[in-house]
């Protein structure tokens, strides 16, 4: 311990107390909702994700803080008997696609690489902020994944898969860079519980739909849509969320959610992993569902009559003084200028207004002639090789 | 040739049993054996000297050398202990030098006694001393001007609102005599300074304690409780409200109205008049860009409860608990901007004439802050009273009407950026903000380099390009500049260095090519390599074995031959 902090005690203690109090709070909520399978017969996976999307939006997370990855477009699939809609229930009461949906990654953009880049924020500078996970040390993050999986992997599209190791490393990097405060990982796929076995970073609660060597099943099919519309585990999680978490001030805890799992209904054994969470199961069970599914929303109303330091009234006076000072300054400046030059604008601006005029931009630096020349010379070289080869071969024969 | 003759000789006795000999292939010619040896050797040579190096080269991952230990030292706080020696100039126009010196010494002594947080301390200096040493000039945090006033009942202080200057009025009789060891004037000055810097000190302690790794063990020799719970609460509240640091902030000013009017506003001059002074003052901390938009026919979302009419005051009211749903995030175009850096939204809402004036029910306020997002102001412009039946808003909002909202937006901007609330002098608070930002950036850049160091150690399969190494070098050098500047009390320079360090640290951590999605379990590797290497490997290895066997057999035979 350094002597430098030695003198300092009570304020420090107070602050530590504070830090402890603050540590249990989060300042923003983010949701990453990922479906990983394509094609019409996987309708239910997209319906799963869209149901979750609807739920988190219902509980107040704005679209800018939801990353939705849909590898296919079921609403516009030619086999969809109800074009433009996606339903997760045969009663077709709620159109999940609706008017207000913001898909951040669509179709072939949903890849393992993009998913890991999203989590670790290793994206190009020109990727818009709406496609980035902008979470910080105060953010609670919900990660929901669904698709076809196996022992310690989850298939993406039809070509690649993400391993449990890579997922664990991605979360590890997020923790290193303080990109989450607490993270709830949910996965609905076959052998889902194997996906979170390799996690090592703290403050993660993970839950999955089925054990090793177990399949996750679909819940029911809609005969008019023609395929299964939702998976069992997601169906019962949703049922809980819809019936018991009706508003942001719901006091339902994660413990309640996990207790609601009924293996006879789900037809597989859902799992929960607590050991990464500080305080383990006891502490983790107390977290409310809206800590992850809802949005912390607070506004600070500024009373016009309050006069404590830093209040609106005090600040307005100070800012007004500042404005006056700058006005005087720019007038002086203008006066000084007009003595040397004659007709300078009276009120020369304190800063410059830059107008954004976006014109067409040329995409490539190279001239097409260069490329043509390169192509021509390559073709010429190939022809020469062929020609010499055939003449040499001819003489030998 | 001799071998051939031997072979011929040995085959002659078998000529009698011709039937059995005809089933055996003819013995290999020695040069065929030699050719086979050469072929096998050539194949293995290609594999060992060409194939293997190429495989090694192409599958190895480039990992630039990083100064891991140094990076971890920074993150652990071993390389730099941030200190904040604030220089305070004392201007004593009416005091002789000796007395001024004595007063200074006493005040400094009292200050040191009062101060418990040694990282943040005040250094007093006489104004005329300053001119002499110019080698390393520290920023002056505050100027204290001592003014003598006759027949003053008690000591009095006054902080200037537009400069960083504190006036202290005293009566000449209160000057400490050269021999005394305490004086009311000195302790008054010390107490005043202590009061002014109390909040800054508390914030610094908070920042340092929440980042410090090994310093959390508290000692027990506390004398005074300096930080009131109220202050502590306001600090945590502010930290929760303020935006994450960014190099560039986009300020988006939007005018929303449910009808068709007002459809224009004097935004350019309003921004220039009321926003740009604040932005100018904040320019050492961050860059700002300004965007504006006007959105007509903007309705509330269908789930938002409608405003209610309050009979007693004759106003329309919104409940405070419904304010979070005021912004129709789904339909109002408040998307984050495309460039890098976060957007701070400022919304000016002009209610429909039928719902005007609109205020918050509980406090009758018209503005509120949404933490880490922006601010809202409801503007209730005076309605033209010509026709009562068909009221409509003004078509154009003149600059004067925008004065109140834009000054409020300036205030909201300040609090969203984490400006401390005391003392009541804006330049002073901005100076404090510079010091706070320098400290937070120094700590966050250090912790990012530490994260990168731990990451490279824990993920051996991740590539590390050379650009990362150079970014890390830049980060480390700027971190030490910043630390050096802090120690010398040059906070502007420290902030500038810390900003560079932060940017480079972020760049190195978020390097695009460092994506570790290459983990394959060993059985996968076998599964990939076996179909390729199996068919090639079997004949190669068998050929090699046969050749080795033959060479060994030949060598043994020769030894036996030489032995017999």
UniProtKB/TrEMBL annotation, chain A:
InterPro entries: GPI_transamidase, Peptidase_C13. Keywords: GPI-anchor biosynthesis, Signal. GO terms for cellular component: GPI-anchor transamidase complex. The keyword Signal applies. It comes from Aspergillus mulundensis. Belongs to the peptidase C13 family. The keyword Signal applies. This is GPI-anchor transamidase. GO terms for biological process: attachment of GPI anchor to protein; GPI anchor biosynthetic process; proteolysis. Pathway: Glycolipid biosynthesis; glycosylphosphatidylinositol-anchor biosynthesis. The active site is at 148, 190 (nucleophile). Residues 1-24 form the signal peptide. GO terms for molecular function: GPI-anchor transamidase activity. Pfam families: Peptidase_C13.
From TrEMBL, chain B:
Its main location: endoplasmic reticulum. It is found in: Endoplasmic reticulum membrane. Signal peptide: none annotated. Residues 1-29 are annotated as: Disordered. It comes from the Eukaryota. GO terms for cellular component: GPI-anchor transamidase complex. Keywords: Endoplasmic reticulum, Glycoprotein, GPI-anchor biosynthesis, Membrane, Transmembrane, Transmembrane helix. The chain crosses the membrane at residues 39-56, 526-545. One of its GO terms (biological process) is attachment of GPI anchor to protein. Residues 8-23 have a biased composition (Polar residues). It is a multi-pass membrane protein. Pathway: Glycolipid biosynthesis; glycosylphosphatidylinositol-anchor biosynthesis. InterPro entries: PtdIno-glycan_biosynth_class_S. Pfam families: PIG-S. Belongs to the PIGS family. This is GPI transamidase component PIG-S. It comes from Aspergillus mulundensis. The lineage of its organism: Eukaryota, Fungi, Dikarya, Ascomycota, Pezizomycotina.
